């Protein structure tokens, strides 16, 4: 027993204890799905790619390790072996001649992002076109911040044939053009007069290679269209129309390195939802930069006599209380500015050393006059007005010195 234990310890030391757990390395759970494994690989391989970390040896090691972890965990058999026997088991399995070829980490990278496995600025690699999409979210999400997801359909490298377009992984040199992709044709312009014309080879379409057994999934085109889901982190106070860049997540092709996916974040039209948090007054706030705007309707009595309170529910459900004491008059269309009840200011726009700040909420008061009144009520109001009109009333026209009839204009021209 002791001998066996010592042997085991010896083996572990020989293999190097530095080998990090594959799951930890990819930042995923033990029961991660294939999709999650792929997602983790995509994120980490871009982060640690040597082209993005020139001269950083530890990033390069990580890049290689991430590729290794991916190749083990994405393969059902290898994953089972790893789960049971760890790095040890994988090493033995590889010695035993695994049927699956071990990929060069740059090769693997190119199967995900196209091109030769390097970024544009590195080896003069062409970068594909960027892709732009619009994602609209309610104002509430801009206020509270939110983590959500969106899905886009894009062109992806066919994973069945790993971008070769061939069922058996074999491609042959085109026998018509001899791999040049072009053919020289002689055209007779007139008797004895010829012209040489270069045309694209129609057998291989200019690729110089043909495929005898095309891949059954992509039919030889090397790419497929498929939906891909991305995480979207809406940060508190992000401005409308902000552009969020997902590096190298646009259309893929074996001929180029995928360009960037750019998300334009916009605001949906306000609409009442079914749930309480979708039915706050805030749902209908209007936003301009860091400020919010709201129209509050008050009655004639409230505007004139005061003595009222209002609870306005904000975008996160908290209450902004507005009130006036008896005798505090509000003129129609008055705007009250409530400081710090506007939008949170986006962290990128905050001054140094400030953690949090808010804009203002502008409340415009709209006074609504009743157009119907009970007869008895009308009578009472009328008599009050009459009483005070007789006592203190003034005729404005007289006060302002206005004439009782029209004023006649002088005719003819005045001399200057
Ligand atoms: Zn294919
Ligand atoms: Zn050809």
Distinct ligands: zinc ion
How would a crystallographer describe the biggest sheet? 4 strands, mixed
Gyration radius over CA: 37 Å
> How many separate helices?
11
| Unreliable stretches covering 5 or more consecutive residues | 9-17
Shape: elongated
Mean of pLDDT: 87
CATH topology of the domain at 284-404: HSP40/DNAj peptide-binding domain
Q: How would you write the strand order of the largest sheet?
A: 10-11-15-14
| Content of β-strand | 15-25%
Q: Which structural class do the helices and strands define? A: alpha+beta
InterPro entries: DnaJ_C, DnaJ_domain, DnaJ_domain_CS, DNJA1/2-like, HSP40/DnaJ_pept-bd, HSP_DnaJ_Cys-rich_dom, HSP_DnaJ_Cys-rich_dom_sf, J_dom_sf
Domain CR-type: 145-227
Protein name: DnaJ protein-like protein
GO biological process, one term: protein folding
Structure, described:
- This is DnaJ protein-like protein.
- One of its GO terms (molecular function) is unfolded protein binding.
- Keywords: Chaperone, Metal-binding, Repeat, Signal, Zinc, Zinc-finger.
- The relative contact order is 0.09.
- A four-stranded mixed beta sheet has the order 10-11-15-14. It has a three-stranded mixed beta sheet with strand order 1-9-8.
- Mean pLDDT is 87; it is low at 9-17.
- The chain is of the alpha+beta class.
- Strand 10 and strand 11 form a beta hairpin.
- The longest helix is centred in the first third of the chain and has 20 residues, at 76-95.
- The protein has eleven helices and 15 strands.
- Among the domains are: 14-113, Orthogonal Bundle (Helix Hairpins), CATH 1.10.287; 284-404, HSP40/DNAj peptide-binding domain.
- Helices cover 28% and strands 24% of the residues.
- The N and C termini lie far apart (126 Å).
- It binds zinc ion (2 copies).
- One zinc ion (ZN) binds at residues 158, 160-161, 165, 215, 217-218.
């Amino acid at each position: 027993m002791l001998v066996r234990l010592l042997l085991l310890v010896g083996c572990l030391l020989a293999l190097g204890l530095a080998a990090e757990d594959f799951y930890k390395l990819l930042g995923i759970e033990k029961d991660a799905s294939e999709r999650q494994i792929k997602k983790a690989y995509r994120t980490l391989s871009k982060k640690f790619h040597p082209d993005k970390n020139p001269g950083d040896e530890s990033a390069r090691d990580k890049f290689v390790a991430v590729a290794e972890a991916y190749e083990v965990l994405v393969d059902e058999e290898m994953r089972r072996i790893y789960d049971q026997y760890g790095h040890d088991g994988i090493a033995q399995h590889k010695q035993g001649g695994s049927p699956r070829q071990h990929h060069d980490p740059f090769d693997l990278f190119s199967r995900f992002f196209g091109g030769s496995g390097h970024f544009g600025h590195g080896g003069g690699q062409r970068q594909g076109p960027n892709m732009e999409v619009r994602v609209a979210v309610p104002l509430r999400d801009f206020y509270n911040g939110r983590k959500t997801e969106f899905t886009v359909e894009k062109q992806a490298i066919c994973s069945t044939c790993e971008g070769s377009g061939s069922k058996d992984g074999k491609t042959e040199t085109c026998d018509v053009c001899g791999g040049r992709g072009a053919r020289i044709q002689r055209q007779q312009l007139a008797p004895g007069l010829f012209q040489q014309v270069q045309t694209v080879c129609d057998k291989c379409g200019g690729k110089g290679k043909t495929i005898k057994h095309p891949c059954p999934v992509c039919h030889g085109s090397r790419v497929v269209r498929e939906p891909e889901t991305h995480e979207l982190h809406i940060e508190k106070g992000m401005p409308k129309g902000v552009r969020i860049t997902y590096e190298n997540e646009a259309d893929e092709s074996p001929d180029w390195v995928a360009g960037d996916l750019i998300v334009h974040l916009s605001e949906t039209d306000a609409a009442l939802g079914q749930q309480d948090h979708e039915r706050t007054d805030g749902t209908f706030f209007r936003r301009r930069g860091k400020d919010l705007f709201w129209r509050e309707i008050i009655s004639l009595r409230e505007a004139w006599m005061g003595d009222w309170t209002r609870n306005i529910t904000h975008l996160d459900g908290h209450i902004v209380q507005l009130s006036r004491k008896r005798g505090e008059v509000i003129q129609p269309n008055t705007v009250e500015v409530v400081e710090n009840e506007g939008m949170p200011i986006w962290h990128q726009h905050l001054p140094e050393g400030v953690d949090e700040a808010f804009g203002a909420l502008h409340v415009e008061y709209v006074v609504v006059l009743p157009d119907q009144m009970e007869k008895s009520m009308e009578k009472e109001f009328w008599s009050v007005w009459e009483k005070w009109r007789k006592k203190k009333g003034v005729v404005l026209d007289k006060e302002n010195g206005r004439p009782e009839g029209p004023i006649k204009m002088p005719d003819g021209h005045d001399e200057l």
